[in-house]
Write a structure and sequence with these properties.
β10 and β11 form a beta hairpin. The chain is 18% helix and 36% strand. It is built from four helices and twelve strands, in the order ααββββββββαββββα. It has two domains: 113 residues, Beta Barrel (Thrombin, subunit H); 96 residues, Roll (Archaeosine Trna-guanine Transglycosylase, Chain: A, domain 4). Strands 1-2-3-6-5-4 form a six-stranded antiparallel sheet, covered by helices on one side. The protein has a six-stranded antiparallel β-barrel with strand order 7-8-9-12-11-10.
Length: 241
């Protein structure tokens, strides 16, 4: 083999063996250059490895609830995944992968990510305590409602009933109707009852309709000892018939 085989052909095909593959490789290289000098550069952990990307605002979202996360095309993150991304102060904030936009022949993946606002806790039917990040969707959030409408089936109640509030959260098989959810900590806790849920509109994502309710006292009742009389436990046992 001479110079033609060893050098020229390898240089010619180093970005791909045809026009499409060479174009794709060039776009990926441009994204790598853009990534290193971007004002929106972030890094985050996924599957035990540190990943790099860009967290850029959506122009129509002034509150920055929905943003774009640009990553390398080799990084595939399922819908509903929670990632912790440092903000400008270096504090890690929870974001949920909402969905991946389909952009043909781009040099990057563009995910739509939703900023999580609350940490919800509840007890499942099997007695296990469950936790999940969630975003509280209110009636005033027209931008998010339009996004749900554009991606959901027409018969989904969450795109039609504008008077309800609900959580947008990762899909959880252990969340059921009438479950009792608590968000917040200490004196800022709030209680909600699940009145319905939708796990079909967005793969990996769940929309949970909620009604506010008074906080329940979940402290377990005291156990009766030999020193206690029936009168001491009148309100727990109903007293003697």
């Amino acid at each position: 083999m001479g110079y033609y085989d060893e050098v020229y052909l390898k240089r010619l095909n180093r970005y791909g063996i045809d026009f499409q593959s060479r174009l794709q490789t060039q776009r990926e290289r441009l994204f790598e250059l853009q990534l290193q000098k971007s004002l929106y550069y972030v890094n985050f952990e996924y599957n035990g490895e540190i990943q790099e990307g860009e967290l850029t605002p959506k122009s129509q979202d002034e509150r920055q609830v929905l943003q774009y996360l640009l990553t390398r095309v080799s990084l595939n993150i399922p819908n509903g995944t929670i990632i912790m991304v440092p903000d400008k102060d270096g504090i890690k904030q929870p974001w949920m992968i909402y969905y991946l936009e389909s952009i043909k022949a781009s040099g990057y993946n563009r995910y739509i990510v939703l900023r999580m606002t609350y940490y919800a806790t509840w007890k499942s039917r099997d007695g296990e305590v469950q936790h999940s990040w969630a975003y509280l969707y209110g009636q005033e959030n027209n931008m998010l409602r339009d996004d749900i409408k554009s991606r959901s089936r027409m018969d989904v109640i969450y795109t039609e009933n504008l008077k309800t509030s609900f959580f947008v959260m990762p899909r959880n098989e252990k969340l059921r109707k009438d479950d009792y959810l608590v968000i917040g900590t200490d004196e800022l806790k709030e209680g909600y009852r699940v009145t319905g849920y939708d796990i079909n509109s967005s793969p990996g994502v769940e929309y949970v309709t909620i009604d506010p309710m008074y906080l329940k006292d979940l402290t377990p009742p005291p156990e009766k000892t030999e020193k206690d009389s029936d009168d001491d436990f009148f309100w727990l046992t109903g007293g003697e018939e």
